[in-house]
Every structure is written in C-alpha cells, then in structure tokens.
Sequence to fold (296 residues):
Amino acid sequence: MGPFGNRSAGGQSRRGLKLWPILLFGIYFAYYWFSHGNVASYTGRKQLIETTSREELALGLQSYREILSQSDVVRDGDAPRQVRDIAQRLVQAAPKVEEYLAETAGTPADTDWSAFQWETSVIRSEQVNAFCLPGGKIAVYTGILPVAKNEDGLAAIMGHEIAHALLRHGGERMAQQKLVQFGAMAASMSTGDMDPGQRQMVMAAIGAGAQYGVLLPFSRSHESEADRVGLLLAAAACFNPEEAPRLWERMAALGSRKPPEFMSTHPAEGTRIGQLNGWMGEAKQVRQRFCGGAQG
Fold:
C-alpha cells in the first residue's frame, strides 16, 4: 500500500506526502545560494558562507580558549618553538601563494588578512592530530610529532590545517549544516501525515542521503582542497613538498582501522598520496619561484 492517498484498515483516510514544504525549501535554497554565494580564494570554487570573516574569528577564538583551558599545554622547549617558527613561515607564504594562483589560474586574491590573528600552541597528548580554527588559532598535539618525523613533515601537517582556515571551510560547513537542518525540517513537515512506519523509513533514507550524499563528500572535498593549498604553502615557505606524500605513507602505516572512504570525512591515505603526487609539479614550480635553489 503506497503512501499517497491510502486508507487504513479502519477506514480512516491517511494523507500522503505534502509537497508545499519541499517547494518552500527549494525556494529558500535558491535564495540562499544566490545571496550567500562566495568565490573561494586559492581555488575559485563557489562556496556558500553566511558568516563574515570577523564572526568566524570570534567563534574560533572562543573554541580555542575552551580547548586550551581543558588541555595540557606545553609552554617551553623545542616543540613550541618549532611549531611557532614553521607557522610564521607558512603564514608569510600565504599571500604569495594567493597572488601566484590569481596570476596563473585567475582565482580571487581578496583574503581579509585583518580577520586572522595567528597563534600557536602545542598540546601534550597521544592524539595524532593538529588543527587550525577559523581566524588562525593553531594547535599541534605532541602525538603527531613522531609521525611528522621532521620539519618538512610538520610543515605539511600545519600547511594543511592553515589552508582550512584560509579557505574558510569552517564557515562553509556551518552554512551546509544549516541547509541540511532546514531540509530535514521540510522533510519532516512533508511526511507528517504518512503512515508512521513509512515515515520512519523515508526520514531514515533522507538522513542517510544527506550524510553520505552531501556532508561527507563535501568534507572530503575540503580535505583535498586543504591538501593542495597546504602543499603549495609549504613549498612557497621553502619546505620540501615531497615530504607530504611520505607523511601520508607514515600515517597509513599506523594501521588504525578506518571506515570505507565513502563513509569517512577524510579521503583514504592512498587517495591523498596519489593527489599529492599529482600536484607535486605545481608545488615544485611554486618552490622554485619563491625559494630558487634554497634548501628547505
């Protein structure tokens, strides 16, 4: 018995799918797309962002303070000094890479640098992790330092994280999540009169479609974008870009069990290694341009 205009065993009519909430959501989505569209620096990709760079800076600072207040922050020693020095080189390289890509690929060069307040911290933890929050707040966990192995590997990690902030992926994810929430509300209203069992199945299918068809693919595309831009940042800062795929070989060797790529927020290590090697020619051109024959 289908969901449209069916009748229950007791003779009581059940209405089916209501289309007007879906229509309203479609109108809202079109409005949102055209009113909040932005062209990303470094890539030229169309992205949806509702927040301003200054708002993202404030949100990033709030989250950064909360994380540090609950963490064992390493204040002295070689690690904080190395992280700070690498970050400074990468940040100084960022405008160079933006100008290079604007010149060679026609991408925008309109980053609001005043909306970034760069700061670094090292957190004592076994986590193999690092992050850069919107606005430029960077943290590196000590657990990732043995995997980085050397200065070039650590620059690859930090370049990737800084690229997330430069590409405003945090603001883009907030906009995506808002649209998904609105879409879920529209779907819930549309199916409100369906048979409860059928409604549960439809809502589960919609939720899975949003997760595996929208949010996870966008997350993986963000990771790939950050890999490429981070590679160019490291190259322009005169680090050895060839260390980036080696880093991911070491990450793969850690042997932790991971879900299939389509179920993951990140590309598989093999995918990342292949992409990084594919971008290596561009990275070497960038390094030659800004560093000449200098050794990283």
The chain has ten helices and six strands. The chain has a mean pLDDT of 83. Strands lie at 37-39, 46-48, 73-74, 119-123, 130-133, 137-141. Residues 46-291 form one domain.
